[in-house]
Amino acid sequence: MSFINYATREIQLKIVYYGCGLSGKTTNLQVIHEMIADEAKGDLTSLATSQDRTLFFDFMPLVAEAIKGFQTRFQMYTVPGQVMYNMTRRLVLRGVDGIVFVADCQWDKMGENVESFDNLLENLKLQGDTLDNLPYVLQYNKRDLPSIAPPNYLDFLLNNRGTRRPTVNAIASKGVGVFETLNLIAQLVLNSFIRKHSGGAREQETRKEMVLM
């Protein structure tokens, strides 16, 4: 849920990177945090468990006038990939404004991808939400590895909920597709916020303005 601070003229929006263990969620945030200018970002913080971790930080977009008169601050989170930390996943999802689902493209990870996606749907349902009402992007990661599924098969498994959602082919470890994914989800989240608060009058303008990298 977006938060508007009228005192500081700031809008806070929350983006969560979701997916199975070792799919590349952490790598995405590390690359983003490394590339964004120091003055525009907070510290990259890790909440470690015995086998997994949750990372988060916030940053101001390079274009700050996407919503006139306000600065926009994005709060970026990953969830733990391990199923045993599902309660932490639920806590991280609270108040989410947009989701990036990071899928591991290796054939032997297809079952884990589907399980994680179903888990996302279930956790959203438990908080009274649904993926159909949220902006989200699918990132098909690890495209440089051998024995990977083609994008159309990943679409068959994960991108089959009526209206097709944006997808990005990525090699997060090399920075490929990382900022393309971020730009897509940031635009979708901003446009969703604008539609809810001003009837969508500035949606097209926002698409042109919101360039993060």
Q: What helical percentage do the residues reach?
A: 25-40%
Please, how many domains?
1
Q: The biggest beta sheet, please?
A: 8 strands, mixed
Task: Indicate the mean pLDDT.
Answer: 88
Radius of gyration, whole Å: 16 Å
> Runs with pLDDT <50, length 5+?
200-211
Tally of contiguous helical segments? 6
Outline: globular
Roughly what fraction of the amino acids lie in strands? 15-25%
Specify the CATH architecture: 3-Layer(aba) Sandwich
Summary, kept brief:
It contains six helices and eight strands; from the N terminus they run ββαβββαβαβαβαα. It has 213 residues and is α/β, with parallel strands linked by helices. α5 (178-198) runs antiparallel to α6 (203-209).
